[in-house]
TrEMBL record:
The protein's name in its UniProt record: YgjP-like metallopeptidase domain-containing protein
InterPro entries, sorted: UTP_pyrophosphatase-like (IPR053136), YgjP-like_metallopeptidase (IPR002725)
Lineage, highest ranks first: Bacteria, Bacillati, Actinomycetota, Actinomycetes, Pseudonocardiales
CDD domains: M48_yhfN_like
Pfam families in alphabetical order: YgjP-like (PF01863)
PANTHER family listed in its UniProt record: UNCHARACTERIZED PROTEIN YGJP, UTP PYROPHOSPHATASE
């Protein structure tokens, strides 16, 4: 994961308490004004690891098994795609070199890279909505994005995945060019 950008804010009104929250891609740490640099360092490290633990707890239940993944796809299809995307198979697969996920519309099957097991649930949801939408519209045209953008955190999730790919120097895209050769239907 990328080192998050951290902004430290000191407040004269704060006496003892330290707190932290995520603001987009940035993490804001609130400290009492009189704290020393040394204490600041310790607290920032401490708050970052606490925040990371709580974000880890928010990972998707779909990470547990293929069955849980299938169930999540059903929920997302019902909620964002009028229940029209009905995959015949959804499963976790070993990390793929260039993709987070892929689908084969002709078979209505979806494969999700195990690299995504530990991302926040809302990021995995985006990936699933994206692949489910390919069961309705192959390719990445305007019709396709109209469906996908019904999922409200689409832009944020795309940004998250780009950051993740860049941080790990993976060069992974969602399912673009490489897929053409394998799935002529154009997932
Ligand atoms: Zn796609």
């Amino acid at each position: 994961m990328a080192e998050p950008q951290v902004e430290v804010r000191r407040s004269k009104r704060r006496r003892q308490t330290v707190s932290a929250y995520r603001d987009g891609d940035k993490i804001v740490v609130l400290l009492p004004a009189r704290m020393s640099r040394e204490e600041e360092k310790r607290w920032v490290a401490d708050m970052l690891s606490r925040l990371q633990r709580s974000e880890t707890r928010r990972r998707s239940p779909a990470r547990e098994s293929d069955e849980a993944l299938v169930e999540r796809c059903g929920e997302l299809s019902a909620k964002y795609l009028d229940g029209r995307a009905q995959p015949r198979g959804v499963r976790w697969v070993p990390p793929m070199r260039t993709r987070w996920a892929s689908c084969t519309p002709s078979e209505a099957t979806i494969r999700v890279s195990q690299r995504l097991r530990d991302v926040p649930g809302w990021v995995l949801d985006y990936v699933l909505v994206h692949e489910l939408a390919h069961l309705l519209v192959p390719g990445h045209g305007a019709d396709f994005w109209k469906w996908v953008r019904r999922y409200p955190r689409t832009e944020r999730a795309i940004g998250y995945l780009e950051g993740l790919s860049a941080a790990a120097q993976l060069g992974i895209g969602l399912d673009d060019d490489a897929e053409e050769a394998e799935a002529p239907a154009g997932c």
